[in-house]
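Quick start: what a row looks like.
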Amino acid sequence: MIMENHEEEFRLHGPEFEELNKKLDRRRFLTKTTLGLGALAFGSLYGANKLFGAAPKADSPMISEDSQEAILNALPHFAPKAKRVVFLFMSGGPSQFETFDYKPKLMDMFGKDLPDSVRKGQRLTGMSANQSSLPIVPSIYKFNGHGQSNTMISELLPYTAKVVDELCIIKSLWTDAINHDPAITFFQTGNQLPGRPSIGSWVSYGLGSDNQNLPAFISLISKNGNGQPLYSRLWGSGFLPSKYEGVQFRSGKDPVLFLNNPEGYDGADRKQMLDYLKQLNDVQQSAYGDPEIDNRMAQYEMAYRMQTSVPEVMDTAGESDEVFELYGPDSRNPGTYAANCLLARKLLQKDVKFVQLYHQGWDQHGGLPGGIKNQCKNTDQGTAALIMDLKRTGLLEDTLVIWGGEFGRTVYSQGELTPTNYGRDHHPRCFTMWMAGAGVKPGITYGETDDFSYNITKNPVHVHDFQATLMHLLGIDHEKFTYKFQGRRFRLTDVHGNVVKDILS
């Protein structure tokens, strides 16, 4: 049955509802006048889609306290160097010994016990704490100098070595967490416990979207990686409004779950349904003023627009053979790391603000030489290709590329040790990451570790420092960018973090 008179205002009749109707009228009046005019004024100054991360509406809802604060802060706080970010997260903790942190002095120390003067009583995981000894094991893989800076790179990363002059390699990262889930959660949200917004959600909330037909924050997970589980909360919005959470794109028939129309159900029917649903939600919003109602509708509307935008951006058939050769043979197989790197470039071209790409499988407690060789083979070419492709298309100038995991690995072997086989335990006290592109100095190495890559000897960079620097490159002062929740003002960096100014260009 088709309803008529859809414009008729909803009213609860009867004397017992008279007071409620008066309140509804008062709320509607305030919304349409004082606050409504404020919304229009600020929207004209800053752009509604920038402020709220959604397409502007003719009947803008009442602005929340937090939205008013966002307007007053006038993000970005200063001119940004980066307009968009792609974060290549190597889940599991890649070993710095087999990738970027060259330690030649270890070659003569094979099997010797780690000196107490190096360990300094630092805690170990339960997996190696009870070992009778902590035997030192150098990498079996060779390192060579590359680029104008003659930066030492492992033979496992020949493609990354070709773009080393574009990289800012940071060897002095450290974290508070020693196990995977809290460490990944810490890196992605600024806190080891679940419940905080992810970096991408903070960025989406603060800077909005430059594309009304795609989410500002998109998450991709390689299908050719496996290991420690990844949870959707890692790209969740936490206590931020739900419309700022990341949307996971998958390979296969349905890149976004529940996006396509059911069989036999056309787009016109769905649009009519959404229009009716909006009317019901408007009534509920007028009655209760719950901002999550508007967030829910914004997500419905985004899903409707994505029905046409997602298939187009996921289709790589138009890419040239040259591009596929650049990214490697895996790039023709949707869902692989290489294919996701290519997809990330397409999403960045569509002005998606934050692309998070996860690749699992770097957790090598045993059989590390073979395991990390396979991981590098799966990721090296795609990573380097993304850098080259972004530079070729002019996007690298205002795109920040990040590579790294949640922590590093130990200099000592866990489990059985042979000249050709060994494992490494978790090591939070120092590890290596790199950044490239917008706002960072290319072709440099920052920070130093001791001969055992166990302790930082120069320029330590804490996870919160890294997060503060990322925000800075996007034009955000991490100390001012807060969200009031349960009576407290929260920020990504909690009460910590300093911008690493020495790496900024």
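That is the whole record. The chain is about 35% helix and 15% strand. The first helix runs from residue 18 to 32.
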